[in-house]
Amino acid sequence: MNYLLVGSNSAIASEVIGKLKEDGHDLWTVSRLEMNVTEHHQVLDIVTASIPENFLPDTLHGLIYFPGTIILKPFHRISIEEFTSDYQINFLGAVKSIQTALPALKKGNGSVVLISTVAATIGLGFHASIASSKAALEGLSRSLAAEYAPTIRFNVVAPSITDTPLAEKLLNTEEKKLNSGKRHPLGRVGEAGDIASSILFLLGNKSTWITGQTFHVDGGMSTVKVL
Questions:
Q1: Burial classification of residue 77, based on how many CB atoms lie within 10 Å of its CB (0-12 exposed, 13-18 middle, 19 or more buried)
Q2: Which tens digits make up the pLDDT trace of 91-123?
Q3: How much is the pTM?
Q4: Beta strand 214-217 with 153-159: parallel, antiparallel or unpaired?
Q5: Which of 146, 160, 164, 219 could be joined to 11 by an S-S link, Cβ 3.0–4.6 Å?
Q6: Would you call 156 exposed, middle or buried from its count of C-beta atoms within 10 A (0-12, 13-18, 19+)?
Q7: Has domain 2-162+191-217 been given CATH number 3.60.15.10?
Q8: Where are the domains of the chain?
Q9: HEC states along 35-61?
Q10: Residue 162 pairs with which residues in a beta bridge?
């Protein structure tokens, strides 16, 4: 199988790449940084550039869009430039990636997996920018799931805070990790492997009757309140 991973230098992407390579799949990766873990790699910033069509194989069986941001500020202090940047990274970059890959995904009856956040579902203070841009991503996924059924499947994984470099400032002490973990019914923050497992499931043959869904991999935060 052929898979395209955009934003492939993230911690979660690294977990997904390792498993896909272990299972013998062929990978095409895109990131702002040079990488030596896959045979086909393109260095570019998806906000300012598009994936060259001649970089991709004729057939793709899956696409994962990993790029994301965490700007946590009071609403009145978030600049229009910051809102715009978040929207470009979280939403428009995904649009560009999907549009470029669409012909190959049609040939491969592909599965597209996008990454959202628990904040797109529940109200969390100081999350206005990321919540709004990721909510747009979820709306896009449902619309495309309808438009391209039954040929291409579109689904979303929506984590809560996960212990990766992206969240380092929020989890850089054991006290912060402990306190953040207590906010979740399952008593801990997420790990990269938790999110990767859900992505791999949605890419694979065991999820062929699932499309237009948002998987909340969030320790129960979005649906459960422990009394």
A1: exposed
A2: 999 999 999 999 999 999 999 999 999 999 999
A3: 0.93
A4: parallel
A5: 164
A6: buried
A7: no
A8: 2-162+191-217
A9: CCCCCEEEECCCCCCCCCHHHCCCCCC
A10: 190
